Amino acid sequence: MEEAQEMAREVILDYIDGLVEFKKRIPVPEVVTEGRYIVNFGYDTALKIIIRNLMYDRQVKAAELARRLKVTNQHMNSILNLRKTTNINRLAACLEALGARLEVEVKDE
Predict the structure, then answer these.
(1) For the chain, which residues make up each domain, given as ranges?
(2) Are 52 and 79 in contact (CB under 8 A)?
(3) Please, how many CA atoms are within 13 Å of residue 6, restricted to the half-sphere of its CB?
(4) Counting beta carbons within 10 angstroms of the beta carbon of residue 45, is it exposed (0 to 12), middle (13 to 18) or buried (19 or more)?
(5) 0.90 cut: is pTM over it?
(6) Which CATH class is domain 2-97?
(7) pLDDT tens digits for 70-109?
(8) Could you give phi then psi for residue 39, rounded to 5 degrees?
(9) Burial, 83: exposed, middle or buried (Cβ in 10 Å; 0-12, 13-18, 19+)?
């Protein structure tokens, strides 16, 4: 099962890479709680998808976001890479540079 989930994860990431390459919006995933297996991508990947969609919606290219954050284009590409882990503070800075704000809520259940 772990191998199948990893393969599914790679296929989804390849699909998203294709969407980014062809300058398309990334579909927001649905949360499935019963009856199906879930491929977990982690919070940083979810935030990167949100950032990519904001960039698409606001017509901001990675080079422009890099300029706003005062980082190199190479560093910006590393930040937005879905296969690399990125610090949440860096992702929050990307959101702020796009005119959005990251808010975290913890629910004690």
Answers:
(1) 2-97
(2) no
(3) 3
(4) buried
(5) no
(6) mainly alpha
(7) 999 999 999 999 999 999 999 999 999 999 999 999 988 7
(8) -95, 115
(9) exposed
